[in-house]
């Protein structure tokens, strides 16, 4: 159903673009009044403005209807679930694998004199 409405939506959009590009601008009627070749069209002496404007209005209405249908179809999905809710809590192991390594300790009885401490150079 999604693909059918989406395909219809794209076809209506392309037809709407074509109809808008075929229509005359506001200044095109002035040339037809003075006898230019624009008045002798396939649609008669009145011109194509009536037919094209009605077809554009119908296609625009269909475009909005398919837009609303697509919004309903693609927006009507289940609530998203969190990734952390999908994870199974890992079991915590309490068994000791090995004893921690013994770290060497610093000698406590070595005196520190002021000459042993590094001094930052003056700037």
Report on the architecture of this protein.
With 123 residues, this protein is mostly helical. The protein has a domain at 1-23 and 48-77. Helix content is 47%, strand content 0%. It has four helices and no strands. The protein has helices at residues 2-22, 28-33, 49-75, 83-86. Helix 1 packs antiparallel against helix 3. The longest helix is centred in the middle third of the chain and has 27 residues, at 49-75. It is elongated, with a radius of gyration of 40 Å. The two termini are 77 Å apart. The model has no long low-confidence stretch (mean pLDDT 75).
Q: What's a concise summary of this model?
A:
With 123 residues, the chain is mostly helical. It has helices spanning 2-22, 28-33, 49-75, 83-86.
């Amino acid at each position: 159903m999604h693909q059918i409405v989406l395909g219809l939506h794209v076809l209506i959009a392309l037809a709407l673009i074509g109809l808008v590009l075929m229509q005359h601008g506001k200044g095109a009627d002035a040339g037809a009044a003075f006898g230019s070749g624009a008045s002798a069209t396939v649609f008669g002496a009145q011109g194509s403005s009536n037919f094209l404007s009605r077809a554009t209005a119908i296609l625009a209405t269909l475009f909005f209807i398919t837009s609303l249908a697509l919004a309903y179809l693609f927006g009507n999905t289940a609530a998203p679930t969190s990734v952390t809710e999908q994870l199974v809590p890992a079991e915590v192991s309490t068994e000791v694998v090995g004893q921690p390594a013994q770290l060497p300790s610093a000698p406590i009885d070595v005196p520190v004199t002021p000459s042993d401490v590094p001094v930052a150079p003056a700037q």
